[in-house]
Amino acid sequence: MMPKRITIIQGNPDPSGQRFGHALAEAYAQGAKGATHEVKMIEVAKLDFPLLRTQEEWKYGTLPRSLQEAQDAIGWAEHLVFFFPLWLGTMPALLKAFLEQVARPGFAIGGGERGKIPMKLLRGKSARIVVTMGMPAFLYRWYFLAHGLKGLERNILGFAGIAPIKETLIGMVDASEKTNREKWLPKLRALGRAGK
Fold first, then answer.
1. Is 161 helix (H, G, I), strand (E, B) or coil?
2. Residues contacting 48, CB < 8 A, separation 6+
3. Which domain holds residue 119?
4. Engineering a disulfide at 119: which of 104, 110, 160, 173 sits with its beta carbon 3.0 to 4.6 angstroms away?
């Protein structure tokens, strides 16, 4: 297996680093580094950036200096791994604001002149999305149709050309006993080793 360039995007808005999603991301990183993959980590909660408020800002504004290193890490990567908790059926607002800033025209998509389909500038990259949630994962997937996850996959990552996109949904994290949580850590280490 050829080593990959992997960027992990920790989308939990809690900057303490004490959440289960942080342990999962660390397990993935350990597995990846142990298999000689190159790994970069983006901690969205530790970045300071403004919200975008107009379409003009998104299209023609400049990327905040505080996000240049993060955008470079995304551009450098062959594989992206997102970690976040499910909030109101989708990603936390801070992660969405981050993606709005870094996935600008000229980086994630190009062209887009009136009447033309924008170019997908992040083709050749793959992704995995790891989502933790309080409800059972099957309930989110089958009853709620994973609408927030599908929006990220289709309307952001897929729109920029990222494929394939795999999912790992971890349910009942609030009610899980320690042993149940710990069973996920080796699974994430294995995914890291495989660069998947």
1. coil
2. 66
3. 5-13+20-194
4. 110
